[in-house]
Write a structure and sequence with these properties.
heterodimer; A: Alpha-Beta Plaits; 2 domains; 6-stranded mixed β-sheet; 4-stranded antiparallel β-sheet; 9 helices; globular; B: about 280 residues; mainly alpha; transport (chain A); nucleotide-binding (chain A); AAA+_ATPase (chain A)
């Protein structure tokens, strides 16, 4: 059974069509990324998946059930964008309530609340109210509540937006560690982050599903992306282009080059590149098999 | 951690109802509200109720009331065994519905506008949230009712210790009657606070609702009096003026009106909750 299935899913707010006939079928497994410009319909799609909104037309099911149905309670959780915890109650009181609603005893719910807070490094503020926390801490607390119990699907809407790099890494590592048991769907504008975390990337634009990209495809992709630290750019393009089997070399950014080649015509391209760097005394920063996510989505 | 079997709607409604009461009793803001409420009622008990009940006991006052309102208009008032409870009944009949509008104005408004419901709705059904919050606010109002009734019992007993048992028994009947009266008010506020963004906005909507409804009924009354006679029963509190001249079990004659109103309003509120965006 597919984890998420949307068929001709549309949602409009008055005359504005926020989501236009989106059809997707996603299975459990590695984290799935949802990207797209502001106003593309990502949050609307998340809200429909969580049952916060009802679709204008089309259908959506999670594990074969309608979002918000009793069978899904406790199985789907989310970090909703802009939703805040009750500012008048401390974290552990609210988390204990969430746990008891999910069927835990009061004692077990409190322990579970402390466990998820420790996962995001907030054990020491469990007795504090959300209003006394910084923006980043509040975000981490909201992520923690999504992990209470044993959800099968966790939807994270911009989980690392507003977090400092160290805490953003904590969240990324947490998602990575938990992704063997939980399927995460992550909406973010940080493509580097999604590239590290996700296998499948869905691109939404103007309410429509543009494309679905698999990071795994990189391994069979006939592209190499090279990031150089120091080199003569014109000479780099000329010399790499002259390697047998290389179709084209494009300068994507200041120091980044995309090499397109025919796998059948070139032998050990990477080795040839390293030899070229050594001969010219060029220093590289990174070599990526395939194209960057940004390049895949926007070129 | 493995969660146990998904608890039922009733269980989760009760968890949420208890949590509402806990929020009042274990939260500084809740305790301040409770203290303010107690202070207001202390003043009402010490001045209007205590002095009015002493009036009620005099024969001159009884004759005056009969002369002004007619022989049988409020004759039941003089049949109360405990005068303090009689005056409390009149005051509570009008004040508690008013308190109800303020106390239950934030059943949903704040949580909905800041998105807190989104954390709850993935853990329990919308029915549980709706009925849990409603029950919680009825529990809070029950607590306020019990506090004020007990204070009235103490006031009566301090005048005459032999009134303790009659005051407790009539206090219990007053509690049940007032509880039933508050049901449609709380259900109405549940709907309004689902629609409003803040508790204050919900209160304003409530004032507008009762004021506009009263004007519409008055207009209909001038054109079609028989229709107005029927429509007036739709409004929560329509029976209050008639309930003044009742006491004890006799007050239950009017109980079906608020019970039916509450059932209809809760049905409408539940439908609204299930259809609304969170």
């Amino acid at each position: 059974m597919s984890l998420i299935k949307c068929e001709q899913l549309s949602k409009s707010y008055g005359s504005k069509l926020a989501l236009n006939s989106v059809s997707i079928e996603l299975n459990s497994g590695s984290p799935i990324a949802l990207v797209g410009p502001n106003g593309a319909g990502k949050t609307t799609l998340f809200s429909l998946l969580c049952g916060y909104l009802l679709p204008s037309s089309g259908s959506v099911t999670i594990l074969g059930e309608k979002p918000g149905s009793r069978a899904l309670l406790g199985k789907v959780s989310s970090l909703p964008q802009d939703a805040t915890l009750d500012p008048n109650l401390n974290l552990i009181t609210q988390f204990t309530l969430f746990g008891t609603l999910q069927g835990l005893t009061a004692k077990a719910a409190k322990e579970e609340g402390l466990r998820v807070l420790s996962l995001v490094g907030l054990s020491d503020v469990s007795e504090q109210k959300p209003q006394s926390l910084s923006h980043g801490m509040g975000k981490r607390a909201s992520i923690a509540q999504a992990l209470i119990g044993s959800p099968q699907l966790v939807l994270l809407d911009e989980p690392t937006a507003g977090l400092d790099p160290a805490n953003a890494k904590v969240i990324r590592d947490l998602v990575k560690a938990l992704s063997t048991d939980i399927t995460f769907v992550i909406s973010s504008h940080n493509l580097d982050e999604l590239e590290k975390l996700c296998d499948q990337v869905l691109y939404l634009d103007q309410g429509q599903l543009g494309q679905s990209v698999s990071i795994q495809e990189n391994l069979t992709d006939e592209y190499i992306t090279v990031s150089m630290q120091s080199c003569d750019k014109a000479q780099f393009v000329n010399e790499v282009s002259s390697i047998n089997g290389v179709n084209s070399v494009t300068q994507k950014q200041e120091d980044e080059f995309l090499i397109h080649y025919s796998a059948s015509d070139v032998i050990e391209l990477e080795v040839q590149l390293f030899q070229l760097f050594s001969q010219n005394n060029w220093r590289y920063r990174a070599i990526l098999k395939g194209r960057s996510l940004e390049d895949k989505l926007f070129s | 951690m493995e969660s146990q079997t998904s608890p039922g709607m009733v269980k989760n409604s009760l968890i949420l109802a208890k949590f509402e009461l806990k929020k009042l009793l274990f939260n500084p803001r809740g305790l301040i509200s409770l203290f303010a409420f107690s202070l207001v009622w202390l003043l009402i008990l010490l001045y209007p109720i205590r002095s009015a009940s002493s009036f009620l006991l005099t024969e001159e006052f009884r004759q005056l009331i009969s002369a002004v309102f007619g022989e049988n208009s409020i004759n039941e008032l003089f049949k109360w065994e405990v005068a303090e409870m009689a005056v409390f009944w009149i005051a509570a009949l009008y004040l508690f519905p008013l308190f109800s509008i303020f106390v239950s104005a934030d059943q949903f408004a704040s949580d909905k506008s800041r998105g807190t419901f989104r954390f709850l709705s993935l853990r329990t059904g919308r029915d549980s949230i709706f009925f849990g919050r409603f029950t919680g606010h009825m529990l809070i109002q029950s607590l306020l009712l019990i506090l004020t009734i007990l204070a009235t019992v103490i006031l009566a007993a301090s005048r005459d210790m032999s009134l303790l048992l009659p005051a407790l028994s009539s206090g219990a009947l007053v509690f049940i009657n007032l509880f039933i009266i508050l049901l449609p008010y709380t259900a109405m506020m549940a709907i309004l606070s689902l629609y409003a963004n803040t508790a204050r906005q919900a209160t304003i909507y409530a004032i507008l609702f009762w004021a506009i409804s009263a004007i519409i009924i008055a207009i209909i009354n001038s054109q079609l009096p028989s229709l107005a006679e029927l429509i007036q029963w739709v409004l929560p509190g329509a029976q209050l003026s008639m309930m003044i001249n009742t006491q004890g079990f006799g007050s239950f004659v009017y109980a079906p009106i608020p019970l039916i109103q509450a059932a209809v309003l809760l049905f409408l509120g539940r439908s609204y909750m299930n259809r609304s965006s969170l």
